Amino acid sequence: MSAPETTDRIERSIELDADADEIWPLLIEPDGLADWLGDEVELDVRPGGSGHLIDDRGTRRDVLVTAVEPARRLAWHWWSEGDELSSVEITLVPTDAGTKVTVVELSATTAVLRAPRGLTGPTMSASAGRVLAGVVA
Amino acid sequence: VSTTTTREPLDAVFGALADPTRRDLLRAVITAGSLTTNELAEGRDMTRQAVVKHLGVLVDAGLLTSWRDGRETRYEATRRGLVPVNRWLSEADAAWERRLDRLRRQVDARRT
Fold first, then answer.
1. For residue A79, what are the β-bridge partners?
2. What are the pLDDT digits (tens) for A14-26?
3. Which of these, B86, B109, B58, lies nearest to A36 by C-alpha position?
4. Is A16 helix (H, G, I), strand (E, B) or coil?
């Protein structure tokens, strides 16, 4: 009955020509975050800290920070106005050339819909009616 | 009819979805469109009371909404419980590509 929770998982990595210590401030300082994660960031970056950000497309997300390991790992839950809740984890791993930055984003609610029980295939849509039609079909 | 517009703490949703029984209950409701407590409790290896408790967690998290239907309580998934899958995947992936590009430019800018 338990469902795999890794279906709706996005993973992206980049290699940066900098030490993790140099990258870290961009991840924890609101001004640093505002330079890349969103255009407007108000966030208390500590475990349990919260805030919000508005990204480059104007989407506002409420954020709840869940893990902060200096120069190693940062994780949060966020929730957009479209009610799309997901969990993000950024890890920094030293490499010969610098630092590998990996982002994993996991959608909480979509993981439910994509779980077994015949709910397979790209049948979901924004409309609840069509979602149900796809599931039932 | 209960309202689902309040924004619950994010952890409530993650907590609600962390349990396989609750995921299964939510799936059952989504598949059927709406179900009553009795329909949801039927054939389950747990007491009706336990099912009701799980359903309460899903309602509190804003994933299900419930209302009285005669002598029963009926449940339906909220919009939050019906997040579209593919749109999220493609948009979230594209968003991270943009963000990581910007991060790279910021790191480069700070080093020069």
1. A62, A85
2. 999 999 999 999 9
3. B109
4. strand
Half-sphere exposure at residue B81, Cβ-oriented, CA atoms within 13 angstroms: 31
The answer to whether ipTM exceeds 0.90 is: no
Cα–Cα distance, A127 to B46 (Å, whole number): 33
Give the separation between CA B52 and CA B60, rounded to whole angstroms: 12
CA distance A8 to B62: 20
The span from the CA of B107 to the CA of B110, in Å, is 5
pLDDT in tens, A89-112: 999 999 999 999 999 998 765 545
Structure tokens at B5: 């517009």
The pLDDT tens digits for B35-44 are 999 999 998 9
CA-CA-CA-CA dihedral for B5, A67, B102, A21, to nearest 10 = 160
Cβ-contact B62, B6 below 8 angstroms? yes
pLDDT at position A107 is 76
* Min distance A8 CA to chain B CA atoms (Å): 7
Choosing among B85, B93, B97, which should be mutated to test the A contact, i.e. which has the most A CBs within 10 A?
Answer: B85
